[in-house]
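Now read the record:
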Amino acid sequence: MTAETQLLIRAYDAALACVRERVDGEVARHVEAAATVLGPSGAVLLVAFGKAARPMAVRAVRALAPLAVRVRGLLVPPNDDSAPLPPLEVIPGGHPLPTEGSFAAGRRALELAAGAGPEDAAVFLVSGGGSALLELPSDDAASVADWRRLQQALVGSGASIERVNAVRMRLSAIKGGRLGAAAARAKVSRTLVISDVPGDIETVASGPTARCGARPDTLCEDIEALQLDRALPDSVAAMLRTGAVPGLPRDDAVPGELVTIADEHHARARAAAVLAAAGVHVDDALDIDDAPYERAVDEALARLEQLARSHPGEAVAVVTTGELSVPLRGDVGTGGRNLQFALRCAEQIEGSEVTALSCGTDGVDGTAPAAGAVVDGHTATRARAEGFDVPAHLRLRDAYPLLKQLGCTVEPGPTGVNVRDLRILLRRG
């Protein structure tokens, strides 16, 4: 492993550590504050869901333990994570697509929220991935298979996360403020968010406790534009034809506040600080969010070249966060947007002094068991020497097998952190 690769991985690890530190401090502070307003017979209701649900819930339970208050609630972690966490119920949901567990968790979350009384405090711990993990269609006739087909079409449409979530909000019994509205009787309601979206945190996990009732209704236009007609369950299509899709709750029906405790800006700043401490001149202002991955590579490399010209003889780096667009059409291989970016980057930097990292902060990239990869000016040359057709792997969205074989992948496993993707391009001085 080169010194440049080691530095980039150290910066990635530091970004994850920064988010974990914020979770540790901010979750404890807010749940302790909520406990101080309970009525004499009140309890703290905790509902945690998303990729960071378990670390958030563990910290909340630990902070409340010395306060001698009643605690109840629900933890909805990803997939097979069913380890108990008393006094919370644990119902694993599905990710990246919902499962029967997601539906069961959705029903139970609504029941618990509706049971919150005027002496209780409701605290929702929300992180990215919650859209799939905690779900229940507004149409009772829709099956899990129906919903998975629709969500797969949504994710593969290439649309921005805002547009994807706009569709999810309208068709769910949980999202668009409906879970928050169910807890309207609670004395206090607060949502702590680890954000995996750009800008407005109301769309994290499709806004289950956010005031979304004033949002424009673009459902029919979005379904047509994203070509989702064939993926709609028959009953949902019928609801659309008759105008029977339930509206979002009025904003005044969704109580409480949303608080961001960590987001991509925290991760990016910590990564940039690690590089700067190593003597690298850093530019962390590039915005390539939601760009097609090919254009993102071109813009990032152009910015790096410009930075190198401005600081001759110095090591320079471009640090950026966000997610990229990689449309999926037909049969695809094993990979994700970070691996796709990394392989495209390897193709473009061949023979140069550039090293690039692209990794998801959640530790998983698309269908691959990797966060992403680190590549350099030798990667594409090595790939061809081992018989790989780099353009074919890009075309088939099959970057993982190639990068895995070359030892380029970064595979930390699920990190309990989810603040979007981190990309660093470093040019040696």
